[in-house]
Amino acid sequence: MDEAFLTQWLSLRAVDGVGDRTLLKLIHAFGSSNAVLHAPSGDLVAAGCSSDLADAIRRGPSAEIRRQIDHQVTAVARLKVRILTFFDDNYPVRLKAIPDPPPLLYVSGELLPQDAVGVAIVGGRRATPAGRVVTEEIAKDLAKCGVTIVSGLARGIDAAAHRGALAGKGRTIAVLGCGIDRTYPSEHQALRRTIESHGAVLSELPIGAAPQSHHFPRRNRIISGLSIGVLVSEAATDSGSLITARLALEQGRDVFAVPGSIKEEACRGSNRLIKEGAKLIEGARDILDEILPQVDARQRAMLHVDRIVADAVVPLRHEEATVYEALSYEARSVDAVIESTGLHAAQVVATLLSLELGGRIRQLPGQQYIRL
Fold first, then answer.
1. Tens digits of residue pLDDT in 49-60
2. Is the pTM higher than 0.70?
3. Burial classification of residue 310, based on how many CB atoms lie within 10 Å of its CB (0-12 exposed, 13-18 middle, 19 or more buried)
4. CA separation (Å) from 335 to 187, 234, 349?
């Protein structure tokens, strides 16, 4: 999109009374944003505008708003951000089909045709260690099969989903609740750069927009809209990821959930989704079984479903089995394992290292361990 074209889009969007649906309706009717801005008032009224709105479109935005638009256009060029409009051929097909698609997307990185086979993975920011591990594993296995992982770059489950997709050498898309020139949270700057190299970062918000709370529910409809289905990996009852699940249902998407401990507050929302009919998910294969019937032959040809295979189970030595049985899918400290097994500290530490190298357990911060 060249600077003049972007200026016309932003100018029309800046007119009071021109919301997303009106914007798309008018451009569809007149053929371009420039044609709408220069249309006679009578033609605008005939297209469904009130006389006041027609006059406002004819006047265009104020001088101050025009200066802000010029700043936006300059920033887009400086940041080398791509702009996609609803009418572009490479606008995401699934997103185009939702009731309220964003008319304009700011994109860093690259969207590819295979991203049409996407699964959103969302959950709480205050995720448990077990929740993060399970999320990474599911995202990794899906990504290995060619499924694009969509999430929101937030702390906790979102970050685990992106990292799992990257570990699986697959593609991932992050949808921001702020302008494309910002990274929120700021500590995910390095993660964002990696995502841009293996997928894309998207925002519908203007350059410079802050990550305000009311932006995120709107952001969530894009996350679900890009996807065939939404997996809620771990969510408390007040989690914003439940909004994403609701939006997914409204958009006709599948909703999945990973079961969690009934004693864990961080899992109450996702457990409730299962009670309400969400598909219970124990691994990537469960999701693939649900989404593959919805994938056409061309898209299926880009997948590698055979890459999910059961790992050969290598028998554990006596000490390894003892230590492994002392662990669970909840984090346990080295001291707790020593106390539980009665083994010497040096034996436990050496055995934990052996189990970790064998891919049976994972070390967490604070000298804690969890089963995989």
1. 999 999 999 999
2. yes
3. exposed
4. 31, 28, 10
